[in-house]
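task queued by scheduler; priority normal; single chain, no ligands, no partner chains; default sampling; output format set to structure tokens
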Amino acid sequence: MKLYSVVAMVLIVLVIAPVAVQEPQAVIQNQSSFTIADSGLLPAHNYVWQEINGFCAWAATTMAMQYAGVDLNMYDVFAASTIGFSFAYFRFDQTLLMFPGALYSQAEPTDFLARLYGVNYTIYLGDTIPNLEQNVQVWQSEGINVGVLEGQNAAFDLLRRTIDAGYPLLISVDPAYLPSYDYDYLRDAGASGGAHGILVVGYNDSETSATIVDPGVGSFGENFGYPADGRGNYTQITYTALIDAWSRRYFISNTFFPDTQPSVSIDSRLGPMIRDKLLGVGTTYSPNSPNALVGKFGEAGFRKLSQDITADGLKSYLSVFDGVDNETNFKASLLYFIGVGLESQVTLQYLSYRAAIKALPSIMSETDLTAFVDAADEALPSFDDLADNSSLIFPGNISESTGFVATTFLEIADSFNATGDIDLALTPYEATLNSFSSDLLTIANSWRDAGNALAAIWPNDFLTVYGPLLAFAGGGVAILIIGVVFYMKRKPSQ
């Protein structure tokens, strides 16, 4: 089914599988040759809990940044990486996909965050990952450091060297192979194949075990709640289990090392980036990609979604599947998954956005953000109308999806499945769907106004930004227009 990916969000980490067109630069291989001991263990830092299913990458990144000497909490990371102010929506042909900033294109915001605070960030990929060369090309074209790991031994060498240097290794794993009983929820459902971000902070070759910090325990299932027993902090895992979990994510790894502090202020770099994320500048979301033209981002994403979530919009989308096998049941399933996707993705966006608004003034302390915050706050009541944690806490469990949006779409889906009449199924819910649409439109208007408040500080109109360049060109300097060949494969969230 096409839309299962709308809600298949079980603990997702860094982006995989873009396609690129530029010639690859020399791949950054493991460069340091630290003396390898048979064991190593980093001193404990503050444990960061991800709080809800979907924020694992950012909780792990927060801890990695802290080890690199940057005093940030997870809410600061939501703001400074811009993911709290980012939203992507794709609606064309058979596609209807919603991505909160936390799940869309994670490598680029992570690199932006690291550079903002003078941290050297590198993403490593195992050499068996699909589209390896294209991944490397794309990220290098965006200025991101990329390394290639030639198999399991190279991955473990990187792990040992990073820990010996005094820093954790952030890795992507299949959580079904992690030791905590929290993941029995996945194992019982046969739900392996997900992706989750954890830190490796220790290794012991003699005992063939590693020490991990897992921000995800307590973030979903019956055990939801802060892990006060400490089970996510400094947990032992056998090498066998670690290899099973890590290899299924192609040994994706991330290092964060201290580097030179930038000379330019945080405000002047972060402000324009948040402006463009809110206003939906496609090339900011998807550099060098046709996604920049195909997708709707920021306020434009919410605006388009507000149109498509109405009765007419849903009928138009479902009509694409006229004539498919088992048509009524198929479309009924789509209706339900659209509802769960809307609720869960908007909830993730709400939680990160609300936290980012509160964190931003202390991060951008040189700028008066009063007008920005006032405009941004206008979206919060509408976010609250749509948000509910249940579909995130119990992913894939229909009986536990108790939020108003999800249950409304389930009722519509059940009615349609029983009658086969889409008009009959949608008509009783038109007012409710219109209220959802109105909330999404309010969010769009708030993001537009908040983005424009930042544009008043950092102008983004064409003449202001490019006027000096055009004037210089008018003096007789030829302008070379470089054609960019776009790639068509979307970079999915890990």
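post-processing summary
- Residues 41 and 202 are 4 Å apart (CA to CA).
- Residues 1-35, 462-494 have pLDDT under 50 and may be disordered.
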